Amino acid sequence: MQFLDNIPWWVALAAALTLGLAPFFPEPHIVEKLRMLSAGTLRRPIDIFDFCLHAAPWLLLFAKLLRMAMVRG
Predict the structure, then answer these.
(1) Axis-axis angle for helices 9-18, 45-72 (nearest 10)
(2) In the predicted model, what is the mean pLDDT of residues 37-48?
(3) How far is Cα 68 from Cα 19, in angstroms, rounded to an integer?
(4) Please, which pLDDT band fits residue 32 given cuts at 50, 70 and 90?
(5) Where are the alpha helices (DSSP H) in 1-73?
(6) Angle between helices 29-39 and 45-72 (to 10 degrees)
(7) CB within 8 A of 31, min separation 6: which ones?
(8) Cα angle at 29 between 37 and 66, to 5 degrees?
């Protein structure tokens, strides 16, 4: 878990807000991929890869938040 502790907060937040939401218009890509996932149309390998790429920064940010909550608790 030291890996998560070594990543600065600003890096995790910047990655989530840039790569995690890019492209911003007409809607964030992660929103499109989540809609496809909920509709059951996320099937093509390129779409799955794209979903993983845009979800990774958010997962990192949530993992850091969870780690912080566990250490304080």
Answers:
(1) 150
(2) 96
(3) 23
(4) very high
(5) 2-6, 9-18, 29-39, 45-72
(6) 100
(7) none
(8) 75
Distance CA 40, CA 2 (A): 36
CA distance 50 to 23: 12
Q: Can you tell me the distance from the alpha carbon of 67 to that of 61, in angstroms, rounded to the nearest whole number?
A: 10
pTM score of the predicted model: 0.86
Question: For 49-62, what is each residue's pLDDT tens digit?
Answer: 999 999 999 999 99
Residue found by looking up tokens 């250490």 in the block: 71
- Are 16 and 65 in contact by the 8 Å Cβ rule? The answer is no
Q: Are 36 and 47 in contact (CB under 8 A)?
A: yes
Q: Is 54 in contact with 33 (CB distance < 8 Å)?
A: yes
Distance between start and end Cα atoms, the chain: 16
φ and ψ at residue 24, rounded to 5 degrees:
-80, -30
